């Protein structure tokens, strides 16, 4: 895909992937719960993503629950050889759409089998342990028991690679003492910059960093300065925010989500948006100002 070609690729386990991927979370119903309003539209987005060069899709069986994995299977199975599907375990959904920790070895084993069944595979490409600290902020706690349980499933051949979500650098080091960590998925974007040091540390280790909520998630990024820069570049603010992430570090892999084919194309086009040093400085200042304000 021409818009991906100038970005290079980065290893996600044994397989290099394009740096612009796709996150399937928004394909579920409101609040990431229940079926999509437009099932055919959701299937079309997945097929368009892969047809457009996306070879990294992020999902979880607790999206829906089960909804996004079942949609992925319906849209794309049998999967292209170069497609990497990354899932996560560590939570379940209540009947009231609540997000509940599910961190025992039995919980994690059950979740892995749910993912295998709903994706229709015999081995999962990558499984991230979703650490249940604060909702979008890592907290220091041991993950030895949880990660050991997943490493045992990996040794049994049910998982190819392991990663972490909502993790600190200390937890990355703890996990690496148990099994290889191929990616870390944390909350990070232009104005949420707490992981700057972690990103740089992971780059030195050759570990992929995958920001969730790269466009702000349930509260989309809003900045007059960002809008002004986007206007000058004849781009949308969200395209500029994605391009900033791609320029931030070569180990960053993006998984912006959408349930719209048009919005998907807009996100993918951000891969061809070049930002010079002066624009990067302006964008860096937005994050600095936001951090100071909070």
Per DSSP, the total helix count is 11
Strand composition percent: 15-25%
Strand order of the largest sheet: 3-4-5-8-9-10-11
Percent in helix: 40-55%
**Sequence stretches where pLDDT stays below 50 over 5 or more residues:** none
CATH class: Alpha Beta
> Can you tell me the CATH architecture?
Alpha-Beta Barrel
Overall geometry: globular
Largest sheet: 7 strands, parallel
Helix/strand-derived category reads alpha/beta
Instruction: Write down the Rg.
Output: 18 Å
| Domain module count | 1
CATH superfamily: NADP-dependent oxidoreductase domain
Mean pLDDT: 93
Total beta strand runs: 11
H/E element order: HEEEHEHEEEHEHEHEHEHHHH
Q: Which fold name is given in CATH as the topology? A: TIM Barrel
**Terminal Cα separation, in Å?**
40 Å
Task: Please tell me about this protein's structure.
By secondary structure, this protein is an alpha/beta fold. It has one domain (2-220, 250-257): Alpha-Beta Barrel (TIM Barrel). Helix content is 40%, strand content 17%. The strands form three sheets. A seven-stranded parallel β-sheet has the order 3-4-5-8-9-10-11, with helices on one face. The protein has a two-stranded antiparallel ribbon with strand order 1-2. A two-stranded antiparallel sheet has the order 6-7. Helix 4 (105-119) crosses helix 5 (144-155). The model has no long low-confidence stretch (mean pLDDT 93).
């Amino acid at each position: 895909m021409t818009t991906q070609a100038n970005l290079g690729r980065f290893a996600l386990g044994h397989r290099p992937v394009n740096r612009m991927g796709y996150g399937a979370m928004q394909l579920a119903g409101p609040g990431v719960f229940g079926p999509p309003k437009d099932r055919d539209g959701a299937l079309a987005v997945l097929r368009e993503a892969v047809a457009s060069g996306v070879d990294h899709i992020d999902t979880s069986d607790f999206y829906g629950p089960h909804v996004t994995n079942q949609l992925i299977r319906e849209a794309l199975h049998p999967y292209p050889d170069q497609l990497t599907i990354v899932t996560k375990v560590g939570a379940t959904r209540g009947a009231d759409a609540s997000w509940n920790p599910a961190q025992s070895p039995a919980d994690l084993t059950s979740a892995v089998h749910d993912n295998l069944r709903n994706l229709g595979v015999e081995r999962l490409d990558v499984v991230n342990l979703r650490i249940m600290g604060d909702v979008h902020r890592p907290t220091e706690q041991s993950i030895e028991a949880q990660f050991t349980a997943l490493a045992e499933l990996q040794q049994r051949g049910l998982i190819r690679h392991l990663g972490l979500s909502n993790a600190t650098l200390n937890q990355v080091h703890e996990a690496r003492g148990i099994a290889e960590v191929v990616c870390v998925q944390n909350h990070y974007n232009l104005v949420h910059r707490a992981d700057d040091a972690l990103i740089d540390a992971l780059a030195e280790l050759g570990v992929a960093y995958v920001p969730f909520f790269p466009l702000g998630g349930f509260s989309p990024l809003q900045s007059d300065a960002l809008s002004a820069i986007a206007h000058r570049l004849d781009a949308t603010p969200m395209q500029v925010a994605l391009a900033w992430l791609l320029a931030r570090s070569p180990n960053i892999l993006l998984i912006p989500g959408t349930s719209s084919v048009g919005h998907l194309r807009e996100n993918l086009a951000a891969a061809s948006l070049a930002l010079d040093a002066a624009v990067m400085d302006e964008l860096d200042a937005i994050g600095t100002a936001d951090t100071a304000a909070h």
